[in-house]
Amino acid sequence: MPFLKEDLLDLNIIQGLKELGGDDGNEFLKEILDLYSEQYPVLLEQIKDYLLKSDYNNLSKSAHALKGASLNIGAKEIASICKTIEINAKSDVFDGYEELISSLESVHSLTFIEFNKL
């Protein structure tokens, strides 16, 4: 399913981050995105590791952390997928994670293509 920029990004949050940066708003946004880009692979690896270990409690916590970080930068579709992983892990759902993680990785790539266009 193709995503529109508006599906992937919360432009109001992104604009708010730019405004927080004042005169250097674009540079501030870039710094925030760089920090996120450092966190993302660590949290994604945790999600995959906890899934392999069937540790659904920590899987939920890692998905929650990535969801929060994603919401903070306006990456709303990434956050949505993380929310599904988080809720499923809390609800003792044991299937479907591979597809969700695959979607997460695809949507992450698409999201940063859109961020780079800003």
Written account of the structure:
By secondary structure, the chain is an all-alpha fold. It has a single domain, classed as HPT domain (Four Helix Bundle (Hemerythrin (Met), subunit A), Up-down Bundle), CATH 1.20.120.160. The chain is built from 6 helices and no strands. α2 packs across α3, α3 packs antiparallel against α4 (56-73) and α4 runs antiparallel to α5 (76-90). The longest helix has 28 residues, at 25-52.
Beta strand count: 0
CATH superfamily, by name, is HPT domain
The CATH architecture can be given as Up-down Bundle
**Main pleated-sheet profile:** none
Tally of individual helices: 6
Shape: elongated
Class, according to the CATH hierarchy? Answer: Mainly Alpha
Q: Taking Cα atoms only, what radius of gyration do you get, to the nearest Å?
A: 15 Å
List low-confidence stretches.
none
Helix content: over 70%
Oligomeric status of the shown chains? single chain
Amino-to-carboxy terminus distance:
22 Å
Q: What count of structural domains? A: 1
- What would the CATH topology be? Four Helix Bundle (Hemerythrin (Met), subunit A)
Percent in strands: under 5%
Structural class by SSE content: mainly alpha
Mean pLDDT: 96
> What pattern of helices and strands is seen along the backbone?
HHHHHH
